[in-house]
Write the structure tokens for this entry.
Amino acid sequence: MQALRGITWLLLLQSIGEVISRGLHLPLPGPVVGMLLLLFALRWPLVSHSVQAVAEFLLQHLSLLFVPVGVGVMTHLDTLGHYGLRLAVIIVLSTWVSLGVTAWVLRALMRGDSGAGSHHG
Amino acid sequence: MADFVQLWVYLSTTPLFGLTATLLVYVLAQTFYGRMGQAAWANPVLWSVVALALGLTLTHTAYPTYFSGAQFIHFLLGPAVVALAWPLWLRRGALRAHWRKFAIASLAGGAAAAVSATGLAWALDLPHDVLLSLAPKSVTAPVAMGVAEKLGGIPALAAVFAVVTGMVGALSGKYLFDALGIGKDSTGWMARGFALGTAAHGIGAARAMQVNADAGAWAALALGLQVVFASVLIPLVARML
């Protein structure tokens, strides 16, 4: 029952998020507005108890959710074939740049603050 | 044989086929990943995508036919984005204490991804719509599609770039962090997880969760922040250029 309530909360907040996003022409997509709404709503035990189980399940299997879009690569093989090598270079390099910059910046900032590791949780 | 062909023709056109095939292949890929000691190269998303795309090509099944079933899984990306509030909520203490640092790291990583991707695309002379589709590549697929659409890119292509980016991050992150000397102490795991969530969205975060629970939580936090920043800032910057 908690799981059922949890998924209902997620869908309800996503729907409200869609309404707000489209109604106010926000740059944020509906699910992102829904996420921000849920962040505020989680302070109520009624919401957090039921959302916990579903959220953990969904996020644990997050990578499964990318498979259908990923298979869509096959419909763009012509574009990918045409620019394949250049796209591969761009995607690999920019992913490495981003990974490196993020990790380095965060570590440098955390080290500047003594005992940063003890703030977990 | 004729009966079998008829049965296949029937089955392959019902939503049941795409849904079952996706789950079956993913469960097998996940088992294989476990057997291989969760080695980065055995990434379950990569091999599921390869196996399904090959299977569909060999059986001459069109992607839309497959997607009529797989869309039920795809649909869950929306609620999953909403669910990202949960790891943010769990880390609210750290978030409150260090929000400036997280925000700076997230902005720096997101800017590095978008600027280097579009800059390289421009330097390598790629068409404008492909270049615009590369801009949101480090954001999770459903959001990347929305952002690409706003920019005038190709949403389906943006989703593909996002998924490939996620796989590149999940596959190579470990080696890159080792090479850069990012350690495995608590700050090191935080930096590794946060970077994977920022640069390689959900697929990177999934990898981080499997490697180290702490890194996974930071990755989810980074993913949530990246989604908010990228969906606001990328269209805004694009409009000013």
